[in-house]
């Protein structure tokens, strides 16, 4: 796919993996719209890359519809969608408080929140973007569009406390191939990246020694992933017309331990 003057939407685009991808797409000539809940960061980034910011909660049909409408009014129908919006939490399925002995259960509402944002939100954006792509004339090779989703190595190596997060990311992996097959006759490709341990805003609260230990656990290169690593693979998935229906780990060969 040629990025020059091509409309793109990046969810979770105000920071981290999404921001790096938005910058890379803009540098390649794409017209980028960001969906995010953080207005301050989103507007600052779109001013930098000459894009457009849309405040969108991916759990809401109305928000997502309004976001796509605004992005398309500014840039035209997108041919590119990169889904980076995501959240996480950590609760044991059932655990015992060491001090009191109290038995605690994973709150169903906390489980549902992660599933709704990460899995259902990703699917919602795919559906609404792909429906718009179907209105486009096919480009070179019959392609109408390309979609990249964000899962996690937790889809395969979920750690203690990650039941909701792993379920949400495993769902993204599980739906990649069937969605790619659903959309194949319309010339829309779908792929998913499974990042390992990345130095994103979610890691900012970790002490330096924790980051150093995590980096040392990566076989090679012995560092945390950086958002630009993700952006590089996302753009290759978008660019390469034969990349379709794939779930690719981007993790320096790490395999996560139970904790």
UniProtKB/TrEMBL annotation:
Q: Which Gene3D superfamilies match?
A: NAD(P)-binding Rossmann-like Domain
Query: What keywords would UniProt list here?
Result: Oxidoreductase
Q: Name one GO molecular function term.
A: oxidoreductase activity
InterPro entries (UniProt xref): NAD(P)-bd_dom_sf, Sc_DH/Rdtase_CS, SDR_fam
Q: Where are the transmembrane segments?
A: none
Q: Which SUPFAM superfamilies match?
A: NAD(P)-binding Rossmann-fold domains
| Similarity field | Belongs to the short-chain dehydrogenases/reductases (SDR) family.
Name of protein? 3-hydroxy-2-methylbutyryl-CoA dehydrogenase
